[in-house]
Amino acid sequence: MFQLQAGDAFVVLAILIYFVVVLTIGFIYAKRSNSSASEYFLGGRKVGPWFTALSAEASDMSGYLLMGMPGLAYFCGASDVGWTAIGLAIGTYLNWLLVAKRLRKYSVVANDSITLPGFYSNRFHDNKNIIATVAAVIILIFFCVYCGSCFVTCGKLFNSLFGWDYSVMMVFGALIVFLYTMVGGYLSVVATDFVQGCLMFFALAVVVIGSITMAGGVENTVAFLSDIPGYLSMTTMATPELGENGMQIVQNGQPLFGVPAEYGLLTIISTMSWGLGYFGMPQVLVRFLGIRSEEEVKTSRRIAIVWVVISMFCAVMIGMIGRAIIPAELLTQSAAESIFIVLSKMMLPAFFCGLVVSGILAASMSSASSYLLITGSSVAENIFRGVFKKNATDNQVLIVSRITLAAVLIFGCFIAWDENSVIFNVVSYAWAGLGASFGPLTLFSLYWRRTNKAGAIAGMVTGAAMVLIWHNLIKPIGGVFGIYELLPAFLCSCIAIVVVSLLTKEPEQAVLDEFDHYMDDTTPERSLDAVLEGEIPLQ
Fold it and tell me: What domain range includes position 371?
């Protein structure tokens, strides 16, 4: 089961070096991280702009960056993955612009909140911790799914590289993530994310340049892909012809494609709505809480957007160029998600191939570690200490957090057990759930004074429920209802916050005073109305 072919030993050596590095970082930060709950969950708010930016984006860009996006591009062409990437790039920029600085500032004003559910609860002076509990439960549900997608990546990687058993290697990768997250806490996660972000960037650049050379240059690649109906278009989508076994049909060594599917304005808007998810992504928002100062947000924003745009462009190009190089080898979307690995093995010496494919581990492990840490902190800090044992010590909170990590690890492995899982689809479901539950609430909490506790709860519950309802009951109808569930769920959550807040009691005076204090201190951005009316420029 674990036999190696000639040359594979060097690939394994490179991957082992990567594992040693990330585990070493975890142990280096272990002593400091375990000194208090604030240090373990947020690094004491002492993280600089470079680490904050690359950590936020590396933890966000899970296995779908190096496997999901190239796989979708390989299988269906430019439109679906292209509009998704555009939406994500816009969402990244707006999230850093509209949320980062304000959330960092308000989280300190709101009783020095160290978790996202804790911020929501403190923002509305929810002494019964209802908001934090609802938020923690939503995080627990959807992050289990998210972790599963990361574990799928680990299993597929080793299975594609060496033919090793998918399930065994999926569990092995999950255990590595669990170990360094449990030991080192937030600082180890941020530090490893920085290393992993650099490695992911390097891996994408190397493979995209090498694949263009293998394909015979840009002109040859474009000429080949132009012959595939709808493949290069942004208004139609290529449709592989599938046989009864679900695999693309191949004739005379060439894959068959049917009539391209229309990709209309509604579909484009729906796909670009991926960007709305950023306003509610806990793994990104927690980086805003932990940055050293609000003044460093602008630097982080610039670093983050450059990293995201270049990385996603390379990921899409790898998938499309891969179709020109090996057009008839990866005949399902699940198999197509291995295109990055296949190209790496074809073009690089064994040791360098190992370093490059470690970028895939970097993508999945940086994300999974963030998901585990945020879930553990939400359950331990907001449910255990917030509801069941208000006088719990930091040590007790850390113990509960680690028990939660273990539970999420087990459930994530259960979700990832099917080796035919499509990473992109798994990620899109969890992304929609978190984005619709927390995105509207984050924006209204920071910008609308009248938002109250009832509105906050209604927004979270409505967003999460609409994702489940739309994905499972409405979306299968097709037609105009076949849009990505994040868009309708996000809009419904916004409506719920506004309607319920206006129909229920105005926030108590202490909440309003705290909001006014935060707004007075948020200069020159005094209010959303002033920004929209052009009185105050956004920086």
Answer: 9-418
